[in-house]
Amino acid sequence: MRTIQLYCFLLLLAMSVFIACAPDANLLGGGNWQASDLTNQQIRTLAGDTRASQTLYAGSQDGSVFSSSDGQHWRRRGMVATLTRLVFGADGKILYALATTGISASSDGGLTWERINTPTSGLPEDSYTTLAFDKQNGMYVGTQHHGVFVSNASVDGAIGTHWKAVIGVWPREVVINELTFDSTQQQLWAATNVGVYRSQNRGNSWEVLNNGLSPSDGVTTLQPASLAGGNPDTLYAGTKRGVFRSSDAGMHWVESGQLLHGVAITSMLLDFRSTNASTIYVGTLYGAFRSDDDGQNWHGIAGGLPQKTPVAVLLIGKGTSSQLYAAANTVYLFPGTGSGINPTRIITLLLILLFFVLLIFITQRGTRRRKSMLKRQEEAVLPPAKS
Question: Is the Cβ–Cβ distance between 80 and 65 less than 8 Å?
Fold first, then answer.
């Protein structure tokens, strides 16, 4: 019986250690999301300084730009009207602000801004949605109504003073939601409201790759796995009704993971720290989710985010790339830096401990009963004592 108790104890101890030390289930507050001090700011975008990895920038719905060196404490820098996205340039020197009224650039960390879509720039008055970089040839910007424009790096410099529309006429109803340049394959990808487009000649011509996607799905984001060291033929597309995956360079798409079926995907992040880009994070209208198996299965990341909170952007940052950030009503950090106790984990460990105590009590009670029965049996078979 003592051997059985020992085995049970070791099993329960292993379970306790696993629950307490799981990466997304730390016993202390570090295993949860933690809100920063940007309260009630309606944060819509995040950007990490590529030259100073400790520095982060956040943009709010009203156009305020904030900076932080730890993700927890923030200070206001400047303003950009109707801000939708912050993006650092390829060399990390210029911070770009995309807005519903145009595109601006800052070379002093968001303190002052220079308007790029001037009358002489070649850029139209439009809502600017996305910016992608080809270090050798320049940058691409996407708009809501006028398609894609390109700026030549060798001619227009770092900021991009002159732009031209890419070859081919984009229908006015096509909204460019995101542009991604895959430098390993030399391909430019466009996630649009009517599907996926790919250019293999820097925008001179485009092909539609929608096999398995419906035009009504609305592709909001697209990430090639090769950007994080994964399979060059694997791509992930976030849509208005879930995540889709292609294993043949975009030729065919299949829905990935039933948990997110019908859920609008707002952002996607490939974890470059994982093996073969197998870990993926997505922001949705209902929070943030994670997959550790190439998007096949999804689960919540951790507690701490208010339920059904829209997550606009996810970002990996800090000096050692050890922190995950989420832009919601404020900026959330995971794992958090606080020391508050996670009640769920405490209750789980207490239940395990209670079960173990009950197991000891039951086995000891059974042992005592058996000993008592044996004693009575022995007394029954002993001859009566001689007088």
Answer: yes
- Judged on CB neighbours under 10 Å (0-12, 13-18, 19+), 185 is middle
Q: Is the pLDDT of residue 291 over 90?
A: yes
CA–CA dist 104, 7 (Å, integer): 65
Q: Give the pTM.
A: 0.78
Which single residue is written with the structure tokens 């859920």?
Answer: 263
* Alpha carbon distance 308, 24 (integer Å): 19
Furthest-apart CA atoms within the chain: distance in Å:
126
* Strand ranges inside 274-346, DSSP E: 280-284, 287-291, 299-300, 313-317, 323-327, 331-334
Strands 128-134 and 138-143: antiparallel
What Cα–Cα distance (Å) separates residue 77 from each residue in 37, 60, 66, 103, 146? 15, 12, 5, 17, 31
Check residue 265 and give left, alpha or beta (phi > 0: left; psi -120 to 50: alpha). Answer: beta
Closest CA to 145 of 168, 161, 131, 128: 128
- Of 233, 238, 267, residue with least CA distance to 250: 233
User: In the numeric block, which tokens belong to residue 211?
Assistant: 């096999």
Interior angle at CA 150, CA 146 and CA 156, nearest 5: 130
SS3 of residue 374 by DSSP: helix
pLDDT value at 17 more than 50 = no
In the predicted model, what is the mean pLDDT of residues 47-59? 85
| Contacts for 192 with CB less than 8 Å, ≥ 6 apart | 174, 175, 176, 177, 219
C-alpha count within 13 angstroms, C-beta hemisphere, residue 301: 31
Alpha-carbon distance of 252 to 260, in angstroms, equals 19
- Please give the Cα distance from 6 to 99 (Å, whole number): 64
Please tell me the distance from the alpha carbon of residue 29 to that of residue 355, in angstroms, as a whole number.
Answer: 25
Q: How far apart are CA 309 and CA 43, in angstroms?
A: 12
Nearest to 250 by CA among 189, 174, 176, 201: 189
Amino acid symbol at 312:
A
Could you identify the residue written with the tokens 């599907």? 195
204: pLDDT strictly greater than 60:
yes
